[in-house]
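Sequence, structure tokens reproduced for reference:
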Amino acid sequence: MPYLKIPDEFPVLRRNGLLLRELNESDLPAWYARLTDAKAASLAGDPVATSMSDVEEGLAHHRRAFAEKEGIRWALVPDEIGTSVGSFGFGNFDEPNLSVGLGGAVARKHWGRGFASTAGAAIVEYAFEVLEMERIQAETLTVNAAAARVLEKLGFEREGLMRGYRVYKGERRDFYLYALLKESNNGSDRD
């Protein structure tokens, strides 16, 4: 279902040396590299890519979601690197409840450099101030302690354990559910 507060023109965000822009074809090699890294893909809950067409389909999906006002997915481009190191964005807009899902991933060689926290702070602020959301939620694998730390740094609170929530490589995996409410968000400038 479309969320009509998503703009027609893709929103470009900038925060502390990090450009968040629309995903494009130039991002495909880095995206493919991340999705063929079995550990990085597994921690993000993504299937391991088997061909470049897997990421081309992902790009087409995100473009369609934006065009149909169902999602926004940004490429993360640090000024110091000049190319995409990952992506973050929103999906699963619930307009009646002013709630949205947050997701993202950063390539392993860029872990621990603050890119996820910086991107998260920028897009959380965008969600509350521009998209007028009241709640942002995120799911993370229980084994992904780094993702949990990023969410907690952004002010998200763990709301629960979703046992056997998704199947990955034939195995049911447990996820934590995190949420941040606009009324309790005082960390939009955390990074």
About this structure: The chain has a mean pLDDT of 92. The first strand starts at residue 13 and ends at 15. The CA atoms of residues 162 and 175 lie 5 Å apart.
